[in-house]
Design brief:
single chain, two-stranded antiparallel ribbon, 9 strands, about 10% strand, globular, DNA-binding, DNA binding, hAT-like_transposase_RNase-H, protein dimerization activity
Length: about 650
């Protein structure tokens, strides 16, 4: 400390010393670049949301780096889908200066260039994973449309890495001139050549037009697959099972076919919903009616969208809970009945509400099945065929319903169902093999479900076909990755007098001949990994069972079969994630991304996918309720900006 004196000793000496002090963490200049400070660091997951001061942080050393700060800005722009101009905003620059005055915030052009550089770096890392991983890739293509009506194709690689973690990486997002099958095939070929990928397991192709209810453009997908079969070498089993049709899209077509003949009950409920949601005053009256009826339901009323059948399901599900409130509206709000007197169908009566309850229960099974088909955070290949069998069983049962409206819907849906899934010859047998590669089910569960929809002879024939295809897969993998350690079949014990064998001359001869033949046959027979796997007992059912963890643990016991499971279980059965699985109008790029050059769009979308530490599951129902609650609680003050 410097001696203090009111006149002779001031702070000038200290002020002159601080700028040149190497231990001053806040000084400017090139001499302080190696100086570190202590700071508390939280994990990425813990750092999300507001901190209440109770989060435990690790004390670490930190030093300012211009390069690291610029990289962090680039990642923020990409991951959080921000426009490049955000770095030139007055508020952002003030915020950045408050955190670190020494940081020179780059301009938008520099940020755009840094995004391109980061894309190339991350692409190189992913190429190395594909090159060194030793796994086959399951490809998934779908198409997007910009607000300028330009067509984009998204190509996603699905695989299970060496640590048995399910991965989904977007490897291409490019502009395409049209949706024709040969066009899609050529662009997929170009992308695979660029990435050096030549080991493909399956390809799930879906054209944007298949989203529409009136057009089923499956022939375009077949053309794309045929083109890829000619280009790709080393296809498994000759590429016979390369094409995997999107189960979510097929199910979407099936349900939409049934809803074509819209029931009057749905129209009445929709009109009642529209009246209540038409003004805040009417909504407030409805809430008071719900309170009088003591309805304790947190669901929010929502109108459906004609092109999204799931929204019709969610609308009916919510409305059914408020049936008594709607009935009270007839007496408490005189405008409610006059609204229907003006030509609107309704209001719904007891008969219509009973029909609504039937529809809700009916559509729920398709809603849940579509959500499971479209899961992106877990393996879906091993359960997809079981879902299909379950739906077929329920459709067969409901086709005998006494409800004429429901019966009519089911008959229309079964026609579309039979077109895609009515015969196993139209299905990809890899979906059935995925059931077998689940150690909890194996062939037993597959046989059980097949017998529910086929006669016993046909079911056993199909099981035999599945086992043969699995054996063929094993032989092909074994030829590539080397033979496994074979386990001989147990030999019969040697003949001895201690055995219960008759002393009769002829009987002794018969037993000796049989033992000799058995010994000869058994000596040349070896059990493959498939035989050993299928002969072992199934794993017990458990809610904590993890399929990929089981194969990771048992990889040493079944090295070749584990490679098959690793490639096959990564196979997607849907081209869309659960949050967009119900749309019948395709996917649309937001206005900001649509305004960018195609190369920039690909850079941002691919890099964002690669940088995100974990995928995020979106609960559609919960998200809708959260938005509704937010708008109500805020008093619509944000309406102008939303």
């Amino acid at each position: 400390m410097y001696a203090c004196h009111s006149k002779r000793n001031g702070t000038s000496t200290m002020q002159n010393h601080l700028p040149s002090c190497r231990k001053n963490p806040h000084k400017r200049g090139p001499l302080d670049r190696y100086q570190k400070t202590l700071t508390g660091e939280a994990s990425l997951e813990e750092g999300i949301g507001e901190s209440d001061g109770s989060t435990l942080r690790t004390l670490v050393t930190h030093k300012f780096s211009e390069e690291i700060a610029r990289l962090a800005i680039v990642e923020m722009v990409i991951v959080d889908e921000m426009p490049f101009r955000v770095v030139e905003g007055q508020g952002f620059r003030k915020f950045a200066w408050s955190l670190e005055p020494r940081f020179n915030v780059p301009c938008r052009v520099t940020v755009a260039r840094d995004c391109m550089k980061l894309y190339e770096v991350e692409k190189g890392k992913l190429k190395k994973v594909f090159r060194d991983g030793g796994m086959r890739i399951s490809l998934m293509t779908d198409t997007w449309t910009s607000v300028q009506n330009l067509n984009y194709m998204c190509l996603t690689a699905h695989f299970i890495d060496k640590n048995w973690k399910l991965q989904k990486k977007i490897i291409n997002f490019c502009l395409i001139p049209n949706h024709r099958g040969d066009t899609i095939g050529r662009y997929v070929e170009s992308c695979l050549l660029d990435w050096g990928i030549d080991r493909i397991f399956t390809v799930t192709v879906d054209n944007a037009r298949i989203f529409t209810v009136t057009v089923d453009n499956a022939s375009s997908n077949d053309t794309a697959i045929s083109y890829l079969k000619q280009f790709l070498t080393g296809n498994l089993l000759g590429g016979k099972y390369m094409h995997m049709r999107c189960c979510a899209h097929i199910l979407n077509l099936i349900v939409s076919e049934g809803l074509k003949e819209c029931n009057d009950a749905i129209t009445m409920v929709r009109n009642a919903m529209r009246y209540v949601r038409s003004s805040p005053a009417r909504l407030e009256k409805f809430k008071r009616c719900a309170e009088k009826e003591k309805i304790d339901c947190k669901k929010m009323l929502c109108l459906d969208v004609q092109t999204r059948w799931n929204s019709t399901y969610l609308m009916l599900e919510a409305a059914e809970k408020f049936e008594k409130a709607f009935r009270r509206m007839e007496s408490d709000d005189y405008n409610f009945l006059s609204y229907f007197d003006d030509g609107h169908m309704g209001p719904p009566k007891a008969t219509e509400w009973e029909t609504v309850r039937v529809f809700v229960k009916f559509l729920e099974m398709f809603y849940e099945a579509t959500t499971r088909f479209s899961g992106s955070l877990y393996v879906t290949a091993n359960t997809s065929f079981l879902e299909i069998c379950d739906l077929q069983t329920k459709l067969i049962m409901l086709s005998e319903s006494t409800n004429t409206c429901l019966k009519s819907m089911v008959i229309n849906m079964r026609t579309k169902y039979d077109k895609y899934w009515g015969s196993l010859d139209r299905m990809n047998l890899f979906m059935l093999i995925a059931v077998v590669l689940d150690p909890r089910s194996k062939l037993g569960l597959l046989s059980f479900h097949l017998k529910k929809i086929h006669d016993e002879f046909r079911a056993e024939e199909l099981v035999s076909n599945v086992r043969q295809v699995l054996a063929d897969l094993y032989e092909e993998y074994n030829a590539t990755f080397g033979s496994t350690t074979s386990t001989p079949v147990s030999q019969p014990p040697p003949i001895s007098r201690s055995m219960n064998v008759s002393d009769g001359k002829h009987e002794t001869k018969w037993f000796k001949e049989w033992y000799r033949a058995s010994s000869t046959m058994g000596a040349g027979i070896t059990k493959t990994e498939v035989d050993r796997y299928l002969s072992n007992t199934c794993e017990a059912l458990s809610e904590s069972f993890d399929l990929l963890t089981w194969w990771k643990i048992n990889e040493a016991n079944y090295p070749i079969l584990a490679r098959i499971a690793r490639d096959l279980l990564a196979m997607p059965v849907s081209t869309v994630a659960s949050e967009s699985a119900f749309s019948t109008r395709g996917r649309v790029l937001d206005p900001f991304r649509s305004s960018l050059a195609p190369r920039t769009i690909e850079t941002l979308i691919c890099t964002q996918n690669w940088l995100r530490h974990s995928a995020t599951h979106i609960d559609i129902r919960e998200a809708m309720n959260n938005v509704e609650s937010f708008v109500v609680e805020s008093g619509n003050v944000f309406k102008f900006s939303l």
